[in-house]
Design goal:
Layout: E1 5-7, E2 10-12, E3 18-23, E4 34-39, E5 46-51, E6 57-59, E7 67-72, E8 77-82, E9 91-97, E10 107-108, E11 112-116
Parallel strand pairs: 2-11
Antiparallel strand pairs: 1-3, 3-8, 4-5, 4-9, 5-6, 7-8, 9-10, 9-11
Length: about 120
Amino acid sequence: QGQLVESGGGLAQPGGSLTLACQASPFIFNILRMGWYRQAPGKQREMVARISAGGNVDYGASGEGRFTISRDNAKSTVYLQMDRLRPEDTAVYFCNAGGSSTAPGTGWGQGIQVTVSS
């Protein structure tokens, strides 16, 4: 799937917002399901949100209701808009490419830290 480059992480206050972006190879981006996963210290990696090549989305329990995944095929970029952030959203967030409706793909970004703290 080529390189996945994440950006947009950092520190946010509880109740605040952050937007993550992941840019992928333009040659195959349009045909890939893209996703965001996260891993908090001492916990397993979990699915946050996924979006198919056609724009169908689904969310994990951690992303439902507060997070929005979207994609811009012209920019080969997938976004994760995170609102009403909570301290428990603190984790390393990973972009994923090429997954199915039930499992992540083999393409992973390097991960980006999101910290929610006052």
